[in-house]
Design brief:
Layout lengths: L1 H79 L6 H22 L2 H14 L1 H23 L11 H4 L15
Length: 178
């Protein structure tokens, strides 16, 4: 009887070992499948995020080009309405042409391509790039201030004369005429 129980114990141990190996193998296979699915989903999410980012950058680039077209048109219109031709009119016409060129350039480029072109230009001509960036910043600041001030050229502050009373009222520090 001792041998039979010993054999049964050995068989049970071998059966348990084999069952454990099958469970471990199944768990490893399922782990691989889960890891594969996770990688696929992560790739899909990254691709989707890149696509959305490219779309948003493209939309912003198109808006910027549209705004530049409007600015160029406004500058051209301003120069065309000038009563006295001269150097200022010529400069405004040149600025209008340059702004239109930049807008056209933006319209023809993909977002990544435009960024690469700007980087390359900045590397080749750092002084011109910094000067252009400074001028663009000043213009953007003035336009923003102008728009925020209701379109008045002095930033919406009103003229200094409008803030001062035209005549003193009686009782405001001076005696009324008799």
């Amino acid at each position: 009887m001792g041998t039979t129980m010993k054999q049964q114990g050995t068989q049970t141990a071998q059966g348990t070992k084999q069952a454990g190996q099958r469970v471990a193998h199944t768990a490893m296979e399922q782990g691989r499948q889960v890891a594969h699915e996770t990688r696929q989903r992560a790739r899909g999410m990254v691709d989707q995020a890149q696509t959305q980012l490219q779309q948003q950058v493209g939309e912003q680039q198109k808006r910027a080009a549209g705004s530049l077209h409007q600015l160029g048109d406004q500058l051209r219109s301003m120069a065309d309405r000038t009563q006295q031709p001269g150097m200022a009119e010529d400069l405004v016409h040149q600025a209008s042409g340059r702004v239109q060129q930049v807008a056209d350039w933006l319209d023809r480029r993909e977002p990544g391509q435009a960024l690469d072109d700007v980087r390359n230009f900045a590397r080749r001509h750092p002084g011109a790039f910094l000067t252009g960036a400074a001028i663009a910043g000043v213009l953007a600041g003035r336009l923003t201030r102008n728009l925020a001030g209701g379109g008045q050229p002095d930033g919406g502050m009103g003229s200094p004369q409008a803030e001062q009373p035209s005549a003193m009222q009686p009782g405001q520090g001076e005696e009324a005429p008799r």
